[in-house]
Amino acid sequence: MSGSGAAPPAGSAGADDTGGFALSGLAVGYARRRFGRRAVQPVLSGLTATARRGEFTVLLGPNGTGKSTLLRTLAGLQPPLDGTARLDGVDLAAADPDERARRLAVVLTEREVPGLLTGGELVALGRHPHTGYTGRLTAADHVVVRWALGAMDAAHLAGRRVAECSDGERQRLFTARALAQQPSAILLDEPTAFLDVSARVALTGLLRRLAREQGVVVVASTHDLELALRVADTVWLLDHAGRLHTGTPEELTAAGLVGTVFTGDDLVFEPGAGVFTVRGERRGTAAVDAPADLAPLLRRALERAGWRPRASGDTGPADLAVAAGPDGYRTELDGAVEHHPTLGALTRWAAEARPPRP
Q1: Do 166 and 95 belong together in one domain?
Q2: How far apart are CA 6 and CA 264, in angstroms?
Q3: Where do the DSSP E strands lie in 123-190?
Q4: Which positions fall inside the ABC transporter domain (predicted)?
């Protein structure tokens, strides 16, 4: 993150500041009037959680569990039905819009792309909560804009029109605009949606470093579960019943919550590896003998073919033995030894092979 290690301009949150989000008995949903009476349609209720300064908090959950509704409520775009959401001790629902804009920045998935603006002009819009009725930027405001662009590795986009930027570059600019507000917290709704793999990884890494180095609260929803479990400091996990579970990725994984929420008919979560695998026919156990850089790939290929690779260091018996050598791969199954010149050839063979009958 170019320039992100430098101290933020005056007014920014510092890495040593305390505070963050605190949800207490929060209920979110929709209130409508029907026949002159107020009808409440709750989506989630009884939510209690914290998101701390300097930490990257990720909101996870299957589709339809209320992630976007929760974020929109925290952002002040719709009122809570019950309970409170406080940021640094301030009840956001009771705060006036100007104060909320100074404390909280929001990056939503649904947004208009101001294609005629340059990247620098887009980021400068983040200063409007601080400019007063004239809307004019001071020299100090321009310093903040340059700092925000640098913090998101987007300084090279300052003079480029937003319409000419890639999806990943636009997302960096929108996040830089949020950072230019110098808020206490930034909320992002699926910031990696529509991005390719490299852009998703890069942006997620930037968000984590942004939280740590600038001392702000960063809360982001995502469907990129495996990546989130690798980089998040804290996870807010919504299950199908609308319950909110919180903890580190390792705590929720060890408790079996991640697997319970996301495992389906054709998908299995492997807690040790932190990845999902496609459920298929199980053929037997496999022992792998391969260099450290090749062994994980070999285990993954065998697992996809339906075998259960033994954990590294497990010397117990296995139905299939696979050894990598300089000229290919050697397999031994039920006393029969075969040679496979490539990993692809081995994988195709493994998908058809059958373990010995008991």
Answers
A1: yes
A2: 45
A3: 185-189
A4: 23-265
